[in-house]
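Tutorial, part two.
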Amino acid sequence: MKIVFLGSTKFSEELLNALIKYHFEIAAIFTIPQEFTVRGNEKVVNNNFADLTTTAQQQNIPLYYVDENNKLGNYENIIKEINPDIILVLGWYYIVPKTIRDIPKYGACGIHASLLPKYAGWAPLVWAIINGEKETGVTFFQFDDSVDGGDILAQKSFEIEYYDTIKEVYDKATNKSIEILVSTLPQIENIQFKHQDKSKLEIWDKRTPSDGEIDFSKSSLEIYNFIRAQSNPYPGAFFKTVDGKKLIIEKARIED
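Running the prediction step on this input gives:
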């Protein structure tokens, strides 16, 4: 199976290294700089950025950069020349246009860190912890024109323990994602894609560092979940003192 890989995060890096370890053929890597712009020239900083250059060089894999001025669609001829069986989109921030999705036999497929149709959209793990969920998972699905509403290839669930921070939950999601890729890709020809009912999609909004301000009118459990959902490697939950200082809370506990 010939794979074109799209990624720009630590999640991307771990999955890319796992695919290489299990001898999948990565024909090309497309990545995004740590600081980039999206629609309307909105500036975004990828706080979970991973530089895939070293891996690409070590494995002799061609690497291409995508940003608002050099969009993925500009590489259409290159991808057609590669003629991949699948495009894997793992830790990506831009829309993958239909002209690109239509090139591979199995289209463009990605992993979303939730049990779709729940927690579609942005920051699914953060939202799940904030909301006090005790279980979530990962979904391997095929991209279409919707937000995370494409056909599903496979899903794996895992528990969110009471003491888990975003790092532990992120690690669980990564491990399940590796499992799902390694087990699903070799038998993709025999998989019956499951259609999603788009009317049931729960699309959550993106989060920015300013959304981390603690609301002390919430219950102790809600505040506890809010803090652990945004701890390292994320910017952190915070409050402001009367003199305007910003104090970030990395860890908290509830006492009887």
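Residues 209-249 form one domain. In part three we will examine how such features are distributed along the chain.
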